[in-house]
Amino acid sequence: KFDDDKFKNFALRVSQGVGKYLSVGGFYYQGKEKVLVGEEVGKIENKVSYYGPDVNVSAGPIGLTAQYLIRKDTNPFFAANATGYETKGIVAEVMISPFLDRSRYYFTGLYNNIDSDLADLKYQTATICVNYLLARNLRLNAEFTRDLERDSNRFGIGMVTAF
Asked: I need a surface site. Which of 5, 55, 87, 131 has the fewest CB within 10 A?
């Protein structure tokens, strides 16, 4: 329903285990999109690409996942005079599962950092989260996020479920 243009985008993620605790991989995405509203419908195009490495380290109850991506757009605002932009981002997550797959508690720490040619897209946060598994498909969580770029905090509690 949402893919209403003729372009078909391409994504590839490859990951390979290296030893007992490490996997290393990479991600690549390439696509095109055209403006869908206004006088320039279908005339102005943006080419998008993402690429970068990722790593996963897992040792007992502790896991670390990190990914670094570079995004390039040729004309993200569909302007008549195209301006290209580059955005770089890193995400890193540490997850602690004290009793491995039998844990009812899970602890996570998450770091996000986005740097872009567009000042409004700059973003840097650190998050800590505690999860409690009530049942196989019902989880409670409490999360605290510090926005390091805007010097603000966010706290949330909630429930995640699936049937």
From this structure: 5
